[in-house]
């Protein structure tokens, strides 16, 4: 993955097929797929159009979602959905730069994503925990910390 969270065009499954034991290729392919899907879902949550659509946000947030905001406030899923629907996103996320994404499996079907986000309000280091469910990936936890 490059700093934008995308796989290089020249990276193909056959490049690691010869070094893998039977069954490992499928597991590596699945891991890369999940990594890309987690990053894609996080980027959707940063999209101003998605953020202003309560149904789209609810589809991405787990029912047990919690967020610790930059002020230290703890947000629940209903509070976050309502707050995002009323925000003026044009000043904060229209021109944002998503970089240095890293996805780590914490447990089966549970993934930690960390990344940097530069926007009009500055640079933040962000972390999200995503759960794989029958309905798709859902964000369980998020925290953003402003960098000095």
From TrEMBL:
<feature type="domain" description="DUF4440">
    <location>
        <begin position="40"/>
        <end position="134"/>
    </location>
</feature>
<protein>
    <recommendedName>
        <fullName>DUF4440 domain-containing protein</fullName>
    </recommendedName>
</protein>
<dbReference type="InterPro" id="IPR032710">
    <property type="entry name" value="NTF2-like_dom_sf"/>
</dbReference>
<dbReference type="InterPro" id="IPR027843">
    <property type="entry name" value="DUF4440"/>
</dbReference>
<dbReference type="Pfam" id="PF14534">
    <property type="entry name" value="DUF4440"/>
</dbReference>
């Amino acid at each position: 993955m490059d700093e934008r969270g995308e796989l290089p065009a020249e990276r193909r499954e056959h490049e690691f097929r010869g070094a893998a034991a039977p069954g490992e290729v499928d597991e590596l392919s699945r891991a890369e797929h999940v990594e890309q899907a987690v990053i894609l879902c996080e980027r959707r949550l940063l999209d101003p159009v998605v953020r202003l659509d309560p149904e789209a946000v609810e589809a991405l947030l787990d029912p047990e979602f919690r967020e610790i905001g930059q002020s230290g406030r703890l947000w629940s899923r209903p509070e976050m959905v309502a707050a995002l629907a009323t925000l003026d996103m044009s000043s904060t996320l229209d021109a944002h730069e998503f970089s240095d994404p890293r996805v780590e499996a914490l447990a089966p079907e549970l993934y930690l994503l960390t990344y940097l986000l530069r926007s009009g309000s500055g640079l933040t280091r962000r972390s999200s925990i995503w759960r794989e469910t029958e309905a798709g990936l859902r964000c369980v936890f998020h925290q953003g910390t402003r960098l000095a």
